Amino acid sequence: MKYLSLDTNIYLDMVVSRNKSHTPDAYEQMKKLLDYGEIKLVVPSIVIREVDRHINNEIEKINAHLKLIKKNVDSLYWINNVEEMKLFKQKIPNVKKDIKDIQKLFENNKGKYLLNAKEIFDNLFSHNHVIILEETHEILFRAQVRQLYKKRPFHYNQQEKDSLADAVIIESLIEFTNTNIDSDDHLYFISRNTKDFSADDAEDKLHPEINESIVSANIERQFKYRNFFNKTLRDDFKDEAEHAGFLEELEVIRNSEYAEYLVEQHRDSASLPSLSSDWEVIISEYKEAESFLGELLDYQGSLINQFENLSDEYFDLIDQIQHSNLESTQQLIRNFNDNDIENLEISEDLDENQAAIIELIDSRISIDINGYEATDLWNCEDYFSLNDGALLKFQDFNNKVLKVEISGDLCPEDGGADFIDVIVNDNILNKSIKGVIEVRYGYMNFDEDNCAADGMKEEVHFYLDDVIEAVKNVSHHLEKQIQHERIIIEEIRVKLGL
Q: Are 311 and 194 found together in one domain?
């Protein structure tokens, strides 16, 4: 008997075609294999939860990408005073209309797409030839040991990365193979997550820190690791695929997968990052990205510090007044009346005197210090993330807002490029600004003798000076407001004689 187990991304590829090798046939092929009954699909229960959690996000990414395409087409322009300008003007409206129609079609059917995707997986996971693996205390314990010692799929240099789900998956499969598979049977685990599961020097082999557990369980002959879904079906499930009636389809798809594999091999030989790498992380590790985030966080920190100083001075003054006795409050009012054009009435009641002074202070300052929390007013994330809400949000004391958002999609292609918008919407100083992060993925070509012919290193360029300038201007504007209030409080303190 052959058993097959798929990582979360392989299932998502069944409903979302995220690159050229992902065909809409994958689900039907899997279903045919199960229906024929010669194999069984092994599914850790955490994979089901991960698939369910990610479906909506993957479908929403399509919507975001369509919006980005429309936006890029809207911003297209041509060279003046050439013959092709007329052709450009003729063609562009049709392109815009087609994209708008596709976007409208997607938005009208987005709910249906999500329901269909969930139905596909509900049907698949409830199949008679599917084995669901529930986590046991022993499996969770072994996964946590991996986490503790930072053994793959965990990484020493990525402490913040949460790989516990991947650890539970691999430990569940090791446990199942060890206790349920005969010596002549095989379990094939397919994952494109080579960064976490594969050896550093060979993507088609498990990392030694995972393989040592397989060797320790004496199941290295039964446990097989693969990276490509269609290639695995073609090479390792050839007879089963032929019996189920789709062997020829697999041959075509496998060739496409292999072409993609060669591209990755060429990139690896030139020390280029894999196209399947987490490019958000790659971008965030550039010193320009770190510097950009650092400057934004500095402006946030400065505002919070200034406001906290204002708050401390305000509440110190209020505290002094509230701890003054009747005679002291009367003297404070006399001092104030001697130094200001406004006169406060002196009462024989302590509470009335204290209330009059505090009311005066609150009437002179324009910021409701009691009503604001500095960390709510000025928020800035300390990590780089696309399409994840506001990177920075500064609010003034009239509820006007400055927002910085990172918008765009990364679609890595060999030799390709993507452009990420860093958008500033400033309702405080009434400005709209856009910066750009340009991502070039690089490439490496080889000649017939397998020698490097030409290539280009991956590059990320940051055009964010205007964004930083906009944040700086708003920060200085807010700091001036805060400083103005501090001056008022200090003037009142002096006039009170404190």
A: no
Give me the number of domains the chain comprises: 2
Instruction: List Cβ neighbours of 190 (8 Å cut-off, separation of 6 or more).
Output: 4, 5, 6, 7, 10, 226, 227, 228, 229, 232
381 and 425 belong to one structural domain:
yes
pTM flag (> 0.85): no
217, 239, 270 - which closes a domain: 270
Query: For 13-62, how does the pLDDT look when each residue is reduced to its tens digit (9 = 90+)?
Result: 888 876 555 566 788 889 999 999 999 999 999 999 999 989 988 888 88
Of 226, 245, 270, which closes a domain?
270
Q: Which helix (H) or strand (E) holds 143?
A: helix 137-149
DSSP states of 253-309 as a string?
A: HHHHHHHHHHHHHHHHHTTPPPTTS-HHHHHHTSHHHHHHHHHHHHHHHHHHHHHHH
Whether residues 194 and 278 share a domain: the answer is: no
Q: Which tens digit of pLDDT belongs to each residue from 414-435?
A: 999 999 999 999 999 999 899 9
Same domain, 155 and 81: yes
